[in-house]
Model the fold of this input.
Amino acid sequence: MKPPNSFRNLLSGLPAASDGTGRVGPTMAAWKARIPQDLEELNPPRRPMTQDELVDMAMDVSSPMGVVGATRKVAAPVVRSLVERIPTLYHGTGSEPFFKFLREKMGKGFNKLGVGGYGSNKQEEAIDYLRQGTVGTPSLIVTGKGNEIEVPKDIATFLRSGKQSLEDMIAERTRYIESEQNRINKYKRPKLAVRPQEKLDMERKTLFNLLTAADEGIADIRRPGSLLELGVDADPSRMLRYDKDLFEQPQYVQDALRDALKLEGPIVPRSTGGRVTMDELQQQTKFNNLLNSRLRTREGTKMLEDAGIQGVIAKSSSRWPNATNYSIFDPDRIAVLRALGLLGLLTGGARGAASPSQEQEPL
Done:
């Protein structure tokens, strides 16, 4: 049902909260007082954006919702080595964009590929990690008066994409709050109503924030997380292949592992039959222990880095075909080329934030 033209009329028809009901937050009268005289003029209906328009918006450097752009220049040798050695990588993070990897910030995740800076050659896979890192993280509505108001991500998505107008959203949530409060009031056992009441209090807070945004106007909507485009100055021939056996590693890595793991005898292929030698058993045991446990620790990563190994390469187990993950041990080998606002292409709107942060998460 289409909401009435005037929100003031809609809210006027709802009962005001009486004292002693245990409600948290403003009363209906306080809510009504915050509604501007003409909400429809403040937020005129917008048609949903097409996919092409979303792509153009995300890639437009001049747009506040698009790519931050070349936020810092990268030294020419890094860019050249990027083309010659390792492809463009993408790093999805739940934090605001940062423009330098720091060693002390590495190692917050599972560290399957060692303690390093992580990236994927598939942008889509990095976006999946971005989404995982922002679960439960609110978005921000920036009002015309400069206030930043927290709202759930789904609300920010609907507002940005035009799927639901602000006035429709307020009307719908107002009706929901009233019906839920009436249902809670009918509980015969008050203790059973505690958790629904807590949830409803959060709904009231969200509604109050939406009314504030309607009163002050919406200047921008910021979603959490960021997608970084990386250039890497590393040599794949000096990186450990996580999916390969010891004898299948590049020769440089084999020599480095022989010294780091104190392996005895020449590295030999894994036996496919017949008698297993003690040298082979010792080599495989130490190598498997490295992959299964030591690699995930700072000490194990440092041991490999001191031996000259620059990182780890592994096939991804994600749903994206041909995705490859990279872990680079030395943060100085990683350059952040751009912070992208590409999450909006999949969810209906996003923006690449311009303020740098140092928080880092895998991929």
Summary: The chain has a mean pLDDT of 74.
